[in-house]
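User: If only I could read backbone structure tokens as easily as an amino acid sequence. Underneath my words sits a plain record pairing an amino acid chain with its backbone structure tokens. This is the protein in question:
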Amino acid sequence: MDFYETNSKYQFNATGFSIGGLPKIPELRYPVLTIFLCVYFIIIIGNVTIFVVICWNPRLHTPMYIFLINLSMIDIAYTSNILPNLLNMLITKNNEISFWSCMCQVYFFIAFACTEILLLAFMAYDRYAAICHPLHYVILMNMKMSAGLAVSAWATGLIDASGHVVVISRFSFCASHLIDHFFCDLIPLLKITCSDTSTVEMINYIEGTLLVATAFMVTLVSYVFIISSIIKIKSASGRGKAFSTCSSHLTCVCMFYGTLICVYVRPTTSYSPKQDKFVSLLYGVLVPLLNPLIYSLKNQEIKDSIIKLRKKFKI
């Protein structure tokens, strides 16, 4: 079967799927491969740099940067769950994926998404405590508490995703095994199953209410108080300094929630393959690509640490 052509007579094994969301124009194969390879390389280098810089500089061993380290790990995990397999398909022209490899991809993608949602909420609370209650910051947020929150975010994500995968793994895919997407994602899988999807959709809505909505409200309320406190600062330089400490996080929150809501917070009946593939590229590739750039460009401490590290090792 040609990688860029769909053959309706091709018989799929019940133990696997075929990824059909890639470009069907042969001339685009190598340009797309080159772009994704460069993007993956930049994401790894950018996030590893943030990780190394924070670990290397003792001054950055604070709750905010503990969360940032975890955010960098999430971004690396996100793209490593998608892009290597995508690059392999572009190189080998083989767009088949085994059933359990597909389930693993779905599991880790949901797990990492849930973890990032919680991390962003915890980071918002951290900025709230630092700006609105600076004298009580060490009580409201300390290293032990931030480490515990980070661990709880990972644990919640890994546990939450298991419910989706357990249900999906029991589905029957008798109608089609062609996934119209770049990878094994939840919504495209629900579109090709012959089984009743109401259980998964119910889990999705419950999760959206309990996890996403709660985390979003924590983030929103935190920034309402943050902005209110910043406005009360009399000096323009003071307002600018206070806002600069949370502008990077706010930018990442807007990008992440904007793309996530477009894809998942709606019924599967409104699924649009072309639109959702584009949005998936935004939150699966573009957000992890921009996160380290945003934090390194807008955070003076990160920039200073990168310069010192380069001078120390003569990079």
The radius of gyration is 21 Å. The first helix runs from residue 29 to 56.
